[in-house]
Structure formats: C-alpha cells, structure tokens
Design a protein that fits this description.
188 residues, alpha/beta, Oxidized Rhodanese, domain 1, 9 helices
Length: 188
Amino acid sequence: MTTPTPLIPAQAAARLDDYTVIDVRTPGEYASGHLPGAHNIPLDHLHTALPALKAAAARGTLLMVCASGNRSTTACTELAAADIPATTLTGGTTAWASEGRTLHRPDNARSVWPMERQVRLAAGSLVILGLAAGTRWRPARWLSATIGTGLIFSAATNTCGMAAALAKLPHNQPRTTDLHATLQALQD
C-alpha cells in the first residue's frame, strides 16, 4: 500500500475538518500544544491503536502529526504495513505554529518539555557526568564518548534511541484512561 503525499501546513489547514488528526507525540508534548481536534496516540502505543485507527481510516483520511514530521512519518510507515492509509504533516506542529496557526492547549494539562529538549538535557548531563567522573576514574570518560557516538548515529539515521528511552518515563506516558477514551472516540 502506498502512503499519500505528505501535506504542508497550508494544505492541511485548508481541509483540517476532513482529516482525523492523530498526534503521535508524548502526552506531555501533546499538552504543550496540538492541532485543533487532534487525538493523542503516542508512537510507542500505535500498535495498540491499530483497530481504532483502521476504523477511523475507513471514515476518512488520517493525518499523522508530531513535532517535526519524523515520528509521524514513522507512524505512517507502520500504518501502511498494517494496510491503513495515512498522511503526515511536513514539519509537524513546529511548522504549523511557525505559520501562525493555532495550537490548542488543554486548560488543566501539565506542560512537559518537548522530547528534543529532554534529549538535549539528558545527553548534555551524561556527557558532563562522564567528564567529571573521568577526572577520578578515567574509564568513566567512555560515557561521554558513547553519548557523542549516539548523537552522531542519531543525526546520520534520523532516529533517536535516547528519545525512545525517555518516552518510556512516567511523565511521558499517557494515562490509561486517556488512551482508552481516545481509542473509543476513534472507533465511534
């Protein structure tokens, strides 16, 4: 199955009501601002949502969204493998907001740092820790080298193992009731 052409924000905005918008970022990122009408299904929970997404796709086009377009492209690939058509928003919510378009924020939601910022904090902290510990125990410097190598690999492959690990932390996980309600809404 082929995936439809990615949309730029202007194209998506012109027909936003025609799409079922699925935001694949973590719940904290989603709470910090999402497209109007978007449903939050974090990328690492996508497999759980396949039946609900298949039902939603039968009613109309799925528009997958993340911060930059990388995770939503991955989601489209996974959906295509399950015979579920979907398209992605090029540039994600970052491009959407940079064009002056509205991002919705729940009134009672706690804001969590975007995943990219969490990765920068974790990577920088581990590099400093490795260097500082290396002054007393030289092999600790390998921690810094390993993080640096991971960052280079991340840039070269456009993937991020550290982001995948950070996404599993409790503050980046959806509450079970929220995910269940989202899946139920998509099937109705």
